[in-house]
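Something for you to look into today, if you have time. I want to see for myself how the chain folds. Leave the record below and I will have a look.
***
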Amino acid sequence: MGIAKDLINKMAEGKDLTGSPKTITGDLDVPEDVTSLKGGPTKVGSSFFCINTGLTSLEGAPTTVGNDFICYNNKKLTSLKGAPKTVVGDFNCAGNKLTSLKGGPTTVGGGFSCSSNKLTSLKGAPTGVDGSFNCSFNKLTSLDGCPKSVLADFIIDKKSRFTEEQIRAVCDVKGKVIQV
């Protein structure tokens, strides 16, 4: 992993990932000064992290990730366009400036967190989440697009106007509905 990380850091000096290897066997931690995933690897064997970067979109992100896809606290990220369609582990896009989940994964094998964004609906959310689903601290006015099934807990903020009964009417939640 050290060689790949050094290479990615060197490539990032140009603010994108042009010239990086197309496959990375371990984790990929995108440097904070990167503003584009252009030219990056198409396959990451373990987890992909882009945290506190200057990214405005996920275009150029790997299409295959062996575990988690973590892209939170990117204060300029407004779109999930370019995210992988299937994520084996967790998908975390919390703390960005997202107004829509369109372009995000359709299948998530772990948890899905889109908390602390600017979402008014859940359109574009995966249809099923094999872990917990966290949509707390948004400005939801609708449950449109809500996953059909969540195999663990459904987390939403107390200020939300939606009751547990309303959530369970549109989503088969196997765990608890938690209002934080």
Q: What stands out?
A: Residues 1-77 form one domain. The mean pLDDT is 92.
